[in-house]
Structure formats: structure tokens, C-alpha cells
């Protein structure tokens, strides 16, 4: 096998490095600045980043002129990767969405508890030498209604914790409801109006809560955001909190976040008392970093070594995602050179597009079973043409 090389420009935990090593893939963890990255990325089959490295059009174009086949984001969001340019240059983009699920869900519940019981405010008061109790009366989560905007893996995990630990009623809105999750699905407007706590897990860049949505909420409602800062209109949030339109908010994310450790935090939300804030700590646990590193190492390796599209964001993970009619064709043949070329020619001559081809040796006799996934039904005449190919034993549909 030719040497396969991966550039880990933002580093990777040892568990992820081990997976690449065991797959026979060479890794390079030297940090490149933008200029060096553009100059050298074409020497690598894959580029894996976290949030620090910006994978721009220029980076992708340079990579496409060389060996680069895939960009992996060790995490969920991929705002720092120009996925449209990657698609244009034929480069797959993959993410690692599952490693941080538990960490983000736990932080969400922690923020709910923090804003409800005002523990961060009590901590800050005590640190400054002032005892406060009467002014920090809180409220309990138990038996309240939790409304979820976005009910994917993280939303479902939050729902599970809320129901089991606090007996909360969980309602939710999602463009693709998962009715097996135990969440009671309803319209977005109903969720906003009924919920005591509203937690955002939509991702993307669009605002799902703005002035109109705040107007629908109870004045006793709390809003929690561990998704993206842009998912809530920041000015509308500030106004709703300052004017008491909602009871409070807790957020881990912001529209504009400092780029460096120790940098000044300038967001106007810090002026308010009815908010709890954390510094984008959703995936910042040892466990999440470890799980994310192994997940991205697996999905990048599986693409480079076996063409697996799992976790791809700019290509369908499976054929079903493409939502086009497909048909299967089963061919038993000798495992010798030239057979695939002959099969492909027959199908091409019959104007049949091949969407996928899975092939495995069967037994130890030198034969294989190949399954073709195609976009057109085959006729009896086409089957006969395939059977007439030398070294083909049988054809079935």
C-alpha cells in the first residue's frame, strides 16, 4: 500500500493517533500557519482540524492540486471549513458529532441548574466577600416543562437526563421529529409558549429565537443555549433579559467569541445579573476530547482505506440520503482482473448509472459476489448480456 499521510494541524489525542497508527497511516502534528498550510497541504491525503485552523478556499484549492482527498473536523461544527469549496474541488468533509454529545448535554443541564438556583451568582458574591441568601432565591427543575428547539442526538440526551433526573415533561420542535425519543413534538410556537425552560440545539448559523419568539415565552421562562451564538438574536436576548420579558438565560456560546486564551470578553450580556455564562465549554472535557479524537480518526481512516462516507457533511453518508430510486444487481463471478470493466461496459452501454459497487470474496475458491446499486431496472436482455461475460457465473436481481 502506498504511504497515506494525515496532517493533524490542531493536534489530536493519543487515542486518535493510535487508530491512525494501527491503520498504517502516517501522521504529522506540526502546526502550520495559513501560508505554510497552503504550501504543504497538497502533500497529505487528509487534513484534520479542530476549531483553530481555518480551512479556506485557498487551502482546499491547494490541496486539490495535490493529494488531499478529505478534511476532517474533530468536533461537531464545521463553520471554519469552506464546505462549498471542498465540494467544488472534490474533497469530502467529515465531522465527529458523537464524541461530545454527553459533554454538551451535561453542560446544558448544569446551566439550567445554575440559572435556576443562582449558584454562579452566589459563588461570585462569596468570592467578593459578601454573604447573599434572600436575594438569591431560586426555582426547581422538578416537574417543570422543558422545551427543546432541535431534537437531534444532543437534544435527545438532554431530554433523557431531564426526564429521569427531574421528572420534567419534555416537549420539542424539530424539522425531522424522532417520535421514538419520548419527546412530545409540537409546533415551535407551542413549545415557546408552554415551556418553563427552552434549550436550543439546532446548530447552523441562523437565528431560531428573536424578538418575535421572546414575545411568545412566559415571563418566568429561562432560555439555555449550548448550540451556536448566532442561533439566538443577541440583541433581542439582551433586550428580553434587561426588560424582564423572560426570567433569565444561560449560554455557553456567543455570536462573537475571543480567539485567544486570556483575551478580553466584551459581550454586553456580561452587564446583566439574570444570566449565567460559560466560555464555550460544551466539548471541553477529557472524555469528550478522547471520544472525538477516536471518532474522527476512524471516519477519516475508513474513507481513505475503504471509501466509507460515514459522517460526511457534503456527501450522502448512505445512498438512501440521496432520495433517488435504486435497484440492486447481484453478480457471482471469478475474482480476476477485467471482470469489473466488462460489467461496467455492459451497464454503461445500456444507459445504466452505477451508484455503488460492493464486492467481497466468497469462500476460498477464487470467486466473489459483487452487488451493484444502480439507478435503473435491468431487463432480461441485460441480464443475459451480463451472463455472457467471461468469468461471470450468475446474475440475479
Task: List the main descriptive attributes of the protein structure presented here.
397 residues, 33% helix, Alpha-Beta Plaits, alpha/beta, elongated, Rossmann fold, 13 helices, 3 domains, 7-stranded parallel sheet
Order of neighbouring strands in the sheet with most strands: 8-7-6-9-10-11-12
What is the percentage of strand-forming residues? Answer: 15-25%
Report the end-to-end length measured between terminal Cα atoms. Answer: 35 Å
- The total strand number stands at 16
Number of domains: 3
Annotated CATH architecture of the largest domain: 3-Layer(aba) Sandwich
Taken in chain order, the helices and strands follow as: EHEHEHEHEHHEHEEHEHEHEEHEHEEHE
Structural class: alpha/beta
The major β-sheet equals:
7 strands, parallel
Task: Quote the average pLDDT.
Answer: 93
Short description:
With 397 residues, the protein is an alpha/beta fold. It has 13 helices and 16 strands.
Describe this structure in words.
By secondary structure, the chain is an alpha/beta fold. The protein folds into 3 domains: 4-99 and 287-317, NAD(P)-binding Rossmann-like Domain (Rossmann fold); 101-277, Rossmann fold (3-Layer(aba) Sandwich), CATH 3.40.50.720; 323-396, 2-Layer Sandwich (Alpha-Beta Plaits), CATH 3.30.70.260. Helix content is 33%, strand content 20%. The protein has 13 helices and 16 strands. It has helices at 14-22, 34-40, 57-64, 83-88, 101-117, 119-127, 153-166, 188-194, 211-216, 234-242, 286-306, 339-349, 380-387, and strands at 4-8, 25-28, 46-49, 70-73, 92-95, 145-149, 169-173, 184-185, 197-200, 222-225, 248-251, 275-277, 327-334, 354-362, 367-374, 392-396. The strands form 3 sheets. Strands 8-7-6-9-10-11-12 form a 7-stranded parallel beta sheet, sandwiched between helices. Helix 4 (83-88) links the parallel strand 4 and strand 5 (92-95). The longest helix is centred in the last third of the chain and has 21 residues, at 286-306. The chain is elongated. The two termini are 35 Å apart. The mean pLDDT is 93.
